[in-house]
Design goal:
The chain is mainly beta. It has two helices and 30 strands.
Length: 389
């Protein structure tokens, strides 16, 4: 009986010790997985932003500042933008013509390291800043876009969904895991990844991306990228002639008597927001063979070959940046926008820091034009590239 008593005592002490050690751990483990939904703070930066509350089919105008519940969808138009901030300090900037849903915003009730944040991009462009989580340095915020999922670690990212469904991810700081089905790709800082609508992942690519369709001018005749135009003040009209190696712009008469302004060229609509771009580069292969109007004309704005970029500034006003190419200025006229090049030779024009030159600064690119202008002229272009990041 004495031995049995001692054994019972030791068993009781053991059970008590195990309870003291393991029961709190079990309870803690149980409660560490408990999460709750917390709202995200939204601020209207400009224009009218629409919101669709959870489980509703109606849109309503958002107040200047609001707390949005999990499941809310936002929509900006061509004149509005919005700014979101999560509880731990991460941010989302919605640009114009963007639709985004706060799909999940879960935080640990008792475990500060627990966080499950999921956004869904339906259209447009966002810039996401993922803040360093003090209790979970490896935490990621997920963005669903098209068929893919982007897991974003601490850093800064720009994500854009094209009208054809392609998703462009630019990693300025940090690193991202890009998922498309069972395939995964890591995108480091300073690189870009494209999720194509056909299920192909491209990358990692340089941050700089093409902003023009058909830079080699191969699809001019079908009108899918470039459109020809002719403007005539008086006299004979100019022409646009696509050839296998170049596009030629020409205006001439047998006696060279034309002395009124005219233009003939090609144009491409851009409609691209560039307010967060840090650089734009413009490159073109150009040539001038003939010009009867010296230099750039009286005002310095008429050249046998010109590049014109039309854009909107921060005030919404339309502005034009232009440069011209000429090979003779016998009359000593203005060439304030001009660059002198040899006649009859192909020259590569390269402007790697265009964004730093344009003033006022562009917010949205409207269109780009390549044209011959002046009195009588013959000129050509065989490549036009506009890139940015």
């Amino acid at each position: 009986m004495q031995a049995f008593a001692w054994l019972s005592l030791f068993v009781a002490v053991g059970l008590l010790t195990a309870g003291i050690i393991f029961v709190p751990r079990g309870v803690a483990a149980l409660f560490s997985g408990v999460s709750e939904s917390r709202p995200i703070t939204a601020t209207v930066l400009e224009g009218t932003v629409l919101v669709q509350p959870p489980a509703t089919a109606t849109w309503q105008g958002m107040t200047s500042r609001a707390e949005l519940a999990e499941g809310t969808r936002l929509l900006t138009d061509d004149r509005s933008r919005a700014f979101l901030r999560t509880r731990e300090g991460s941010t989302v900037l919605l640009y114009n013509d963007t639709s985004l849903a706060v799909q999940r915003m879960q935080y640990g009730r008792f475990n500060p390291a627990l966080q499950d944040s999921v956004l869904r991009l339906f259209q447009g462009r966002v810039q996401i800043g993922v803040a360093l989580h003090p209790a979970s340095p490896d935490r990621r915020i997920s963005l669903l876009a098209g068929q893919g999922r982007l897991d974003l670690s601490t850093g800064t990212y720009r994500i854009e969904m094209e009208p054809d469904g392609a998703v462009h991810l630019s990693v300025r700081q940090g690193a991202a895991l890009v998922w498309l089905g069972s395939r995964v790709l890591e995108a480091p800082a300073g690189r870009r990844v494209v999720l194509q609508s056909d299920g192909v992942i491209l990358g990692p690519l340089p941050l700089e991306r093409d902003l023009l369709r058909d830079p080699l001018l191969e699809r001019l005749t079908d009108g899918t990228a470039w459109t020809a135009f002719v403007v005539t003040e008086a006299g004979t009209s100019g022409t646009v002639t696509p050839q296998s190696t170049a596009v030629w712009f020409e205006r001439h008469t047998s006696d060279g008597s034309t002395d009124r302004h005219g233009e003939s060229g090609i144009v491409q609509d851009l409609d691209r927001d560039v307010r967060d771009y840090v650089n734009l580069s413009l490159r073109a292969d150009v040539r001038t063979d003939r010009q009867t109007l010296s230099g750039g004309g009286t005002a310095g704005t008429e050249y046998p070959l010109m590049l014109r970029l039309t854009y909107l500034d921060a005030e919404g006003r339309e502005q034009i940046w232009a440069t011209g190419f000429y090979h003779q200025n016998d009359a000593g006229l203005s060439v304030k926008l001009g660059r002198n090049i040899p006649a009859g030779e192909w020259i590569t024009f390269d402007h790697p820091t265009l964004l730093q030159e344009i003033r006022p600064a562009p917010v949205r690119l409207r269109r780009i034009e390549v044209l011959g202008s002046g009195w009588e002229y013959r000129s050509a272009v065989r490549r036009v590239e506009l890139t940015g990041y």
